[in-house]
Predict the 3D structure of the following.
Amino acid sequence: MIQERGDVVSKALRAFPQGSFLVTAASDGRSNGVLAEFVMQGGHTPPTIVMSIRKGQVLSPLIRDSRRFAVAIIDRRVRAQARRFVNASVDSISPFIGLSIEHTPGEIPVLRDSVAWFECELARHIDIDSDCELYVGNVLNAHVNEEDLQDFDQPSFHEELLRVEDEAELTELLAEAR
């Protein structure tokens, strides 16, 4: 019997890959950031990112007005800094004060020690019947800290499947995945 509600759904949702992402935006001299609920690559040509943030966040009007946002992949080294963005508000002082930041070519602040960041132009905003809203952005610029990328520089299972040239190799790859 398939269970569709309650704890089973919560447990099943945790099977999705998770990461730590800080989404930032700037408009008219104001800037802020929030931790994303999820981020994923949405397309290849053009490179596209899909991200979700909770509704009512301070970032939404900044993205709406500037039509740009940045997504930074963060690791344990910068999580303490990223905690400032958990309860960011419009009236608070800039959460970037005292942090080591750099700016994207579009002048969006990002944490300097991020593993990588992507500056995106807003392609779509999708208000879904949920506690989160979706943003789709086309990647305009990106930066990666090469030494940090080693931990992430692995082909995806999908990429490995596309490279398979014969049945024996496919059988071996699927056996490794189990």
User: Anything to note?
Assistant: The mean pLDDT is 83. The longest strand covers residues 132-144.
